[in-house]
Design goal:
It is a single chain. The chain is α/β, with parallel strands linked by helices and 595 residues long. The protein has 4 domains: 4-192, Pyruvate-ferredoxin Oxidoreductase, domain 3 (3-Layer(aba) Sandwich), CATH 3.40.920.10; 205-386, Rossmann fold (3-Layer(aba) Sandwich); 400-472, no CATH class; 480-594, Rossmann fold (3-Layer(aba) Sandwich), CATH 3.40.50. It is built from 20 helices and 23 strands.
Length: 595
């Protein structure tokens, strides 16, 4: 039998609350330390415990990180999804199953490895057998695939961080799983793990943790938040790193944290920090952004620096709180009532999560406006390989802040909302500086900050705000371009689609179709996005939502001559994007054009 090395997908079906996550992370970490390009997707339910959960491990020497278009190895522990999981498998798939689960193997066209996982776990400790069962299947997989035992033990030690009894128990369980497979089964499948040379040192990190570190290095002084999946770990990451990174010589913390009574209150606190000259932020998801809209409008109209991170989940309403989507694009870009337009940063890698974490504060103060970071559950709550971060090597950009009285008095006239330089960005002073005015006004006002309902004042104010945001286009992160020579078809995408795009490209190229790529990293869109569209006969916008929100924004902002060249491929079912689905829809779009 010809072996298949480092090119398959493992799907582990368990129940939430059984401790499977630790076992899955041990499996993932051990593969990673062997130099195998690997990714893990945690598909967990939105309740505390009991409902089905799946963990998808993708091994790919080509570096593919999407969940994969099929399951090659299925681990079955959960009777609730047993039949459904079995039915979904292609013939020839491998099934490792807990024969103590009182369920039957109903297929004879798969490679079946029954393992008495519960019984083996009870041998170790009957009281916690439910938890130990999970590490048994890791041992079975390790023996079946040839995973290095030393790397497994190192991953166990890393997971349990010096808890000697837990480390010993889990290593014993791994050994039982290994020995049972070796003594009772003959390997009848082609799948193996082969160690690879590690070219550059890497580590695993979640997107939310990377944003948290970026925010701390960006000088955040206030975190006001209200817990909501999938953003809570971003706030918790900031909190966890404060003692290590944000204490002064006397041991006092230099970043305040307030868990507010609700999302609206958190947003108000963030604006209070910005008004006072501090760097304030919050982390939330779509439902929280919905509740913050009143203060978001105030921040835009009164021009208050502030940072909002939205880790996107599936909506609308409560929706699917533990699934992923890119459906908040329009809400962030045009958030709140009235004519608004916001700056939105859209990282696609953990490195960019860190970078945009600190840049968001510079942009907020430079443009005196709310800044949104748009991540999603897939990028935010899963672990990704990272070679390291580029730390800010420049002074913080505090924008147009007048701190010196001599400078203040040098103004021919001073108005809080006066456009002195023609870029739409006024100068501001800070409370306690002894210079007036420090007024921020959320009602109609003129350039001096004085209340006004005059038509000319309102018109000029709104035109200036638009000019200010438009002026940010080519200052914000430029798109990432990967262009083919003389290629007629372009692909535009954003965010975590970055981790699927290469596989999509390879599928298309196998059919004889070459495409250029443009990953949009910020709104309003950089001028190079329009140039990219103009260089191609057709451009297809890929995104993880139903309505094609980024496509809609492009259609509103592109000149008429380019609108006809743009098409949409939008798809969302709650799962991270699978390359096969998007490639198929791109091919369908191209076929329709030909017909």
């Amino acid at each position: 039998m010809e072996t298949i090395a480092n090119d398959f997908t493992i799907n582990i079906a368990t129940a939430n609350g059984t401790g499977s996550q630790s076992a899955n992370l041990i499996l993932l970490q051990s593969l990673f330390e062997m130099g195998v390009p690997v990714s893990g997707k945690n598909m967990f339910p939105s309740n505390i415990s009991g409902l089905p959960t799946w963990y998808i491990v993708r091994l790919s020497d080509l570096g593919y990180q999407a969940p994969g278009n099929r399951t090659h190895i299925q681990v079955l522990l959960n009777p609730a999804t047993w039949d459904e999981d079995l039915e979904s498998l292609e013939p020839g798939s491998v099934v490792i199953w807990n024969e103590n689960a009182k369920m039957e193997m109903t297929r004879d066209d798969v490679v079946s490895y029954p393992i008495p996982m519960s019984a083996l776990a009870r041998k170790i400790n009957p009281k916690i057998a439910k938890l130990v069962t999970n590490i048994i299947y890791v041992g079975v997989l390790a023996e079946m695939l040839g995973i290095d035992q030393a790397e497994l033990e190192a991953a166990v030690a890393k997971q349990f961080k010096g808890k000697t009894s837990a480390i010993e128990l889990n290593i014993t369980a791994l050994g039982l799983g290994r020995d049972y497979f070796k003594d009772n089964h003959t390997k009848n499948d082609p799948y193996v793990v082969e160690k690879r040379k590690i070219k550059k040192p890497q580590f695993f990190i979640e997107g939310n943790e990377a944003v948290a570190l970026g925010c701390l290095f960006g000088g955040v002084q206030l975190l006001a938040w209200y817990p909501i999946t999938p953003s809570s770990s971003l706030a918790e990451g900031i909190i966890n790193y404060i003692p290590q990174l944000r204490t002064d010589d006397d041991g006092n913390t230099t970043c305040a944290v307030v868990q507010a009574e609700d999302e609206l209150a958190a947003a108000g606190m963030v604006l209070g920090a910005g008004w006072a000259g501090g760097r304030g932020m919050t982390a939330t998801s779509g439902p929280g952004i919905s509740l913050m809209q009143e203060f978001i409008g105030l921040g835009y109209f009164a021009e208050i620096p502030s940072v909002f991170w939205d880790v996107n989940r599936v909506g609308p309403s409560t929706g699917l709180p533990t699934r992923t989507q890119q459906s908040d694009i329009t809400m962030l870009y045009e958030g709140s009532h009235g004519d608004t337009q916001h700056i939105v940063l859209m990282p696609g890698t953990v490195e960019e999560c860190f970078e945009f974490g600190w840049r968001a504060f510079d942009y907020a103060e430079r443009f005196q406006t709310p800044i949104f970071g748009l991540s999603d559950l897939d990028l935010g709550m899963n672990r990704w390989a990272c070679e390291g971060f580029e730390y800010p090597d420049q002074d913080m950009d505090r924008g147009k802040v007048v701190r010196d009285r001599d400078v203040f008095e040098a103004f021919e006239e001073f108005g809080r909302y006066l456009d002195v330089d023609g870029d739409g960005i006024p100068y501001r002073t800070l409370p306690g500086s002894g210079m007036d005015p420090i007024l921020y006004r959320g009602t109609g006002h003129n350039s001096k900050g004085v209340y006004s309902e005059k038509p000319d004042d309102y018109y000029e104010l709104m035109q200036r705000l638009k000019r200010k945001i438009d002026g940010a286009r080519d200052i914000l992160p430029a798109p990432i371009l990967r262009e083919e020579t003389e290629c007629e078809i372009g692909i535009i995408y954003l965010g975590s689609m970055e981790n699927t795009i290469q596989e999509i490209d390879d599928i298309l190229e196998a059919t004889g179709i070459k495409v250029s790529q443009c990953r949009v990293r910020a709104l309003p869109m950089h001028s190079e996005v329009e140039n990219f569209i103009s260089r191609h006969e057709m451009t297809i916008v890929l995104e993880i939502n139903r309505d094609g929100q980024l496509y809609g924004i492009l259609r509103k902002e592109l000149p008429n001559s380019l609108i006809t060249k743009v098409r949409s491929v939008a798809y969302s079912d709650g799962l991270p994007p699978r390359a096969g689905i998007y490639a198929e829809r791109i091919l369908e779009t191209l076929k329709e054009e030909v017909e």
